[in-house]
Amino acid sequence: MAAGGTDAISLRAIAREMGMTAGAIYSYYATRDDLITTLIGDLYTELVDAAEVARDALPADDPGGRIVAWAQTVREWALANPEGFRLIYGDPVPGYRPPEDGPAREAEHRACTGLTGLVAAAWPEASSHAGGGDYDWSDFDPGLVGDV
């Protein structure tokens, strides 16, 4: 994938790179879509794990620092893993059909609730600088609000 982008993802090519036969890799992944789904899930989980570690290294009473730590970690991860970042957030994989609930539902949920939690923690301080708007959580899905 690093050399050929998302177009280069194939079970046969991965098997060749791993020194396996194409038939052997099919015992792990029935289809190319299954492999891509697993790859996206693993990469997204790795990214969210790193962001949570960076966030949690700072005290809860420093919401601004925790937001910056999260953002810096995501940026550093994206620069170190450009193909993985594009696979998660960018270029669609030609012909890939993700599962109906998404390829990385748990990691996606952790990323969304993590970011929303950071904003919620920073909001009391930020609202005094926000120009007087009257904002509330009614625009958000109740399930997400309940997790925050």
What does this structure look like?
The protein has 148 residues and is mostly helical. The protein has one domain (34-147): Orthogonal Bundle (Tetracycline Repressor, domain 2), CATH 1.10.357.10. It is 61% helix and 0% strand. It is built from 7 helices and no strands. The protein has helices spanning 11-17, 22-25, 32-56, 63-80, 82-89, 105-127, 142-147. Helix 3 (32-56) runs antiparallel to helix 4. The two termini are 36 Å apart.
Q: Which labels suit this protein?
A:
Tetracycline Repressor, domain 2, 61% helix, 148 residues, mainly alpha
CATH topology: Tetracycline Repressor, domain 2
From the coordinates shown, what is the CATH architecture?
Orthogonal Bundle
- Proportion of helical residues: 55-70%
SS strand fraction: under 5%
**Major β-sheet profile:** none
- Coarse morphology: elongated
Class computed from helices, strands and strand pairing: mainly alpha
Structure summarized in a few sentences:
It is built from seven helices and no strands. The protein is mainly alpha-helical and 148 residues long.
